[in-house]
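FORM 7B: Structural annotation worksheet

SECTION A. Query
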Amino acid sequence: MPEVIFHIRWPDGTEERCYSPSTIIHDHLTAGHSYPLRDFVARARAGLNAASDRVAARYGFACSSAMDQLARIEATAKRHRPDGPPVVCLSLS
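SECTION B. Predicted structure
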């Protein structure tokens, strides 16, 4: 199953390398786009859950790496103001 690494920039300027076990994340995030914080978290949640579901359909178990990534995104998002600067998806590869 092809994995995707996506790089994001948080509202405070820090950058993070994120992991998806499936290319389905491309259906939820676009390189070069900025997303309000809540929208980004919702898109990441939908994309990573869908990716984990694809792993489960193929291998019979959910992807713990996708769920760990989602937990990190959600935890980091809580440290930022929802009405602050957007999250930028820098790249998907």
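SECTION C. Observations
The beta strands are 4-9, 15-20, 34-35, 87-92. The mean pLDDT is 97.

SECTION D. Sign-off
Analyst initials: ____
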